[in-house]
Amino acid sequence: MRQIFTHYPNRTRRLLEIGIPSITWLLITMPFWLSFWHPAIVAYLIITFDVYWFYKSFRLAIHAIRSFLMVAAHSKVDWLTQAKTLSGFDTLHHVVIIPEYQEPLHVLRRTLTNLAQQDFPKERMIVVLATEDKDPQARETEKVLRSEFGSLFGKFLVTRHVLHEGEVAGKSSNMAWAAKKVVAMLGKWNIDGDTTTVTSCDADALLHPKYFSALAYQFLTDPDRAYHFYQGAILFYSNIWRVPLPSRVFNTMNSIWNLSLLSQSSRFINFSTYSLALSTAQKAGYWGVDVIPEDYHLFFKVYFALGEKVATRGIFLPVLADAAESRTFFRTMVNQYEQSKRWAWGVSDIPFVIRGVFLHHEIPLGDRLRRLIMLLEHHVFWPANWFILTIGSTLPPLINPAFARTVLGHNLSQISSGILTLSAIFLIVVIVIDLRIKPPRPKEYARWKLPFLYLQWVTLPVVSFFLSALPGLDAHTRLMLGKRLEYRVTEKV
Questions:
Q1: What are residue 424's phi and psi, to 5 degrees?
Q2: Residue 182 parent element (H or E)
């Protein structure tokens, strides 16, 4: 297999791009076509998947509770004082790269204002506004923001990414360009790159005021910091009171899921806004210039470059981000769908990971397989789980009347619904944590709407179909058919 991947890189990649989404389609259609011949097998597979979903719901609840309690505790810690006592603190610098393309000025201004409120010494913060050369607003944006924020940080650098042949437009190629520019400037600034972190900060991300102090403490006390990513809890709560109900339900579930990941170190992969040692990014060859899913791709680039010790460590502080939004209900739903599809496009990175699993024999086989299975589980089940959970148990008895007259066929729907009802109990944990952790209700949000914060959860099956399963299936099908996804910047209001 190693020789096949080496000699036929394009053909093997294309075969995997067809094969992996085909598994998703196989799982979705399996209850229909297999019920004609082996309905009992379908029934047992569905029950097994229901039990698996119960286990997943249980894990989500337990880890969300643990992460919530730790966020509450860590938010009260004076990380700066603790970090100052550590060796290396006085020479530590934080680089913050904010990739942007046609972002509204008020969004970037809000993000930079938030960075200026960090309690870490601003003279050792290097803020990089990573613009795109094709953005007609870039020069005016640079002029305004440099005049307002240029003097608030140790360094304020603006880069302009020119798209080269072989590159894919998007955050990843822009990050690679900006990071290389920073490394080139460090020598002129007499800053040691080995004692510098780099943070990939989304244009709408609002980091907790103690984030960089907490990062400094965790980085300096971590003996394996050269192998680790660091990330806070990405919560899509900045505009959660303003977005319509379907978007609010969807982003609340995503936020609690992100929160729970902080406590699951074995399953945690950096996402959206995260930090790592700048020297680590250099060793891995920086961000990929020909991919869209930059976060997962960078993680596995580092993993294949440095080995099994690579992992993501949680910083138990909130990082607020905007939920997808527009000026009308319909446009908001379209934006949320497109954002979900872009996230699901991470499935396009699996061929790269599979290739690395076969080629990097220096990493223990068990560790390579564990990470690959985890990635496959996440992406293959993304579009498939809704169909299996909602309609899977009803198909075998309908398609095969003879099976419907058996004990298993007669009771299949009841068994499945019973397991899923037990799983729904853990939804109470999500609701309670959501009410405790999201920003306070703004004055313009009418009190009479508050009961709908509880009633909204009955729409979860419908919301999950249109904003998760369907865009996920869209991304998988596009990959299978060879229709590449172009990077689409989520609209900001």
A1: -65, -20
A2: helix 171-189
Residue 465 scores a pLDDT above 80: yes
pTM of the model: 0.94
Please give the angle made by the CA atoms of 267, 479 and 53, to the nearest 5 degrees: 35
Tokens of 403: 């099976």
For 140-144, 426-430, 444-448, which range has the lowest pLDDT when averaged over its residues? 444-448
CA dihedral defined by 110, 254, 287, 112, rounded to 10 degrees?
A: 10
SS3 72: helix
Alpha-carbon distance of 351 to 144, in angstroms, equals 42
> pLDDT by residue (tens digit) across 299-336?
999 999 999 999 999 999 999 999 999 999 999 999 99
Residue 230 CA from chain centroid, whole number: 13
CA distance 21 to 478: 9
Task: Give dist(CA 5, CA 11) in Å, integer.
Answer: 9
H/E element holding 156?
strand 155-161
Report residue 215 as tokens: 């990062």
Distances (CA, A) of 196 to 188, 216, 229: 15, 10, 13
